[in-house]
Amino acid sequence: MPASASVTLEAGLDPNGDHPGQVLIKLSDKVTKQIFFQYYVPAEQVVRSADSGEALNPGSLMRSKA
Fold first, then answer.
1. Is residue 49 assigned to a domain?
2. Which region, left, alpha or beta, applies to residue 61 given φ > 0 means left and ψ of -120 to 50 means alpha?
3. What is the pTM of this model?
4. Helix residue ranges, H only, 1-66
5. Which of 6, 12, 22, 31 could connect to 40 by a Cys-Cys bridge, CB 3.0–4.6 Å?
6. How many domains does the chain have?
């Protein structure tokens, strides 16, 4: 995402520990801090996708979890 975007995309481990082994992906507004999207994805899926070296289609991690 470009720095000029009005949204922030965050990805990382769950800060509260309520979802062990999962990666938290969050999209929020930079100004109001309103969260538009928050989703937990199994870490294995993220690593598997990164190891493949292939470009991901938008939403592919979420579709594979659902």
1. yes
2. alpha
3. 0.62
4. 43-52, 60-65
5. 22
6. 1
